[in-house]
Specification:
The protein is of the alpha+beta class. It contains 15 helices and 14 strands. The protein has two domains: 216 residues, 2-Layer Sandwich (Cytochrome Bc1 Complex, Chain A, domain 1); 185 residues, Cytochrome Bc1 Complex, Chain A, domain 1. Strand 1 and strand 2 form a beta hairpin. Helix 1 crosses helix 7 and helix 10 packs antiparallel against helix 11.
Length: 430
């Protein structure tokens, strides 16, 4: 599937993926922001905008309007890719070709423009009740991270690993900053977002790209000024002395996360062997971690490897009994050492390739996943299609995986254990 790129001007890029695969059309406005000191304000802004806009001033008004558009779906969100903060406004509508009424796609564009550019204002800023309510919702969302111990451990490992780097900032912001959040500054940050942030508009569905371009130009009413350049993510870092971080909490199972620096990101040629490496190591039932750590040694309730391709990081996670910490760390490191020596069986390698190809093909069946993939391409200035990515994955050799494996360096070991004293950081040598 080839994404067609159409320049709108003023830092706005329209990306259309024409396909007859879906009976719906999905639209996504994605603003690019640096993951800088305004990250809490960035995270809160879409939630406040979702509460109401000119003509649809309440959530109930918005719901009624979506129903009138044959059950259209509307959502907002934030995510980070590397050290880039992405603010998303999305809508899914039934394709006009399947309706007696025409113009639903045009109405979707006009609605999204209202949400983004015509918010409900009060005393020259956002409606205070909306800001206060969404601050509380965001605080609850941040607090709830601790309820998912696997995700919490991954986040804490990344924070400790990337101290002093922008990547350590949590995608949904900081609670303390929310407490003191100035609504007038929030509105000023919003204005900056609208006026100067690079904007990608994605459209996936059975549409004519040129007609979509005309719809966008007719519906969009942004006051655009000078466009801010977003710094590239810093992903190369000289190896430091690995450190161990132990955090103590009332948990029944230990959560181990080992963070590695790959010094490779998605724009590098070595990225493709790195993806296969991650799958061989911990990408499913075929992997070394699953077979050797979970099944043979019975050390872990789960074991996986996960890449953060935009920052050049790899995380190995495992749920273990507290007393099996040392044994588990040792056997995980043994798997990495085995791969660096070329000890990869045909079954492991083929299983890794097949798992990756199946997953990538599956993403082609979901408009949201397609958009997320091509948004990643936008971040990396890449035009690689999913089909081309699959071909590159299939072309990876065992020797290339082995070569990549020798570049990974352990940076941080995080362990969540069962006590109640907060956390302590221990520095350890190689």
């Amino acid at each position: 599937m080839h994404m067609q790129n159409l320049e709108i001007g003023k830092g706005i890029r329209l990306k259309v993926l024409p396909t007859k695969k879906f009976k719906t059309v999905t639209i996504s406005f994605c603003f690019h922001r640096d993951l800088d000191e305004d990250y809490t304000y960035n995270a809160l802004t879409p939630a406040v905008l979702k509460r109401g806009c000119e003509g649809f001033e309440t959530l109930k008004d918005i719901e009624k309007h979506l129903e009138s558009l044959y059950g259209a779906l509307f959502d907002v969100g934030v995510q980070k890719k590397g050290e880039r903060h992405l603010l998303r406004f999305s809508m899914e509508v039934v394709n006009d070709d399947y309706l007696a009424e025409q113009g639903i796609l045009a109405q979707a564009f006009y609605f999204l423009n209202r949400v983004i550019n015509r918010p409900v204002l009060e005393d020259g800023g956002f409606k205070k009740d909306y800001v206060a309510q969404e601050k509380e919702n965001m605080k609850n969302r941040i607090r709830s991270l601790v309820n998912d111990k696997v995700q919490y451990s991954l986040e804490r490992c990344a924070q400790e690993m990337c101290k002093g780097e922008k990547y350590s900032r949590y995608v949904f912001g900081d609670i303390e900053e929310l407490d003191g959040l100035d609504s007038s500054k929030l509105y000023n940050v919003y204005r900056e977002i609208i006026q100067s942030s690079p904007l990608d508009v994605f459209v996936v569905g059975d549409v004519d790209p040129e007609k979509v371009r005309l719809l966008l130009e007719r519906s969009l009413s942004m006051d655009r000024k000078g466009i801010t350049a977003i710094p590239k993510t810093i992903y190369r870092k000289l190896q430091v002395v690995p450190k161990t971080v132990e955090e103590e909490m009332d948990v029944n199972q230990g959560k181990l996360v080992m963070g590695f620096r790959t010094n490779i990101n998605a724009a590098d040629e070595e990225y493709f062997p790195l993806v296969v490496y991650g799958s061989v190591l911990g990408g499913g039932p075929h992997s070394k971690l699953f077979m050797n750590v979970r099944e043979k040694a019975s050390l872990a309730y789960y074991a996986f490897a996960r890449l953060e391709k935009f920052k050049g990081l790899m995380f190995v996670g495992a749920g273990i009994d507290f007393e099996k910490y040392d044994q588990t760390v040792n056997i995980i490191m043994e798997q990495l050492e085995a791969m660096a020596k070329g000890q990869i069986t045909p079954q492991e390698f083929e299983g890794a390739i097949n798992a990756l190809v199946t997953s990538l093909k599956g993403s082609m069946d979901q408009p949201s996943q397609l958009i997320d993939y091509y948004l990643g391409n936008s971040v990396m200035d890449s035009d690689l299609t999913l089909e081309e990515l699959i071909d590159r994955i299939k072309g990876v050799t065992v020797d290339q995986v082995v070569e990549v494996s020798r570049k990974l360096k352990l940076d941080t070991v995080y362990f969540l254990r069962n006590r109640k004293r907060g956390y302590v950081v221990h520095e350890k040598g190689n």
